Amino acid sequence: MTLAHIQALLSDGSTPVIEGFQQKNRKTFNAALRWEASENKMSFSFGENET
What we know:
With 51 residues, the protein is α+β, with helices and mostly antiparallel strands. 20% of the residues lie in helices and 37% in strands. The chain contains one helix and three strands. It has one helix at residues 3-12; strands at 18-22, 28-36, 41-45. A three-stranded antiparallel beta sheet has the order 1-2-3. Strand 1 and strand 2 (28-36) form a beta hairpin. The radius of gyration is 11 Å and the shape is globular. The N and C termini lie far apart (24 Å). The relative contact order is 0.20.
């Protein structure tokens, strides 16, 4: 994560898509991070049609 990603998360509540997250089995994936204020946690966002 870059400083720009952190700034976007804090100001907009989400980041642009970040490449290269890694699962436990070492498979990589791309996703945006989204702050869920009501649940006080971050989550992955995989597409614009997510609810």
